[in-house]
Amino acid sequence: MLPRSKLHKVMSRLIPTEKILYGKKVTSVQQNDEGALVICNANEIYHGDVVVGADGAYSSVRSSLYKQLKAK
To answer: Could you tell me how many helices (H) and strands (E) the chain has, helices first?
Structure first.
């Protein structure tokens, strides 16, 4: 576990600001041959190599990933 304040500091130093998205409501996280796919509630779709779900104790990102793991 990493305190949120430290996570923000690390992310802001190492990752370009346009790559960090705040205030998004994630509805689904998927994986394909090209990497990760994140779908948000406004039908916004984001592609990337890594998804960091820092959305708290009732994480929708974690929930989406667990559903996929259970299905396998």
So the answer is: 2, 3
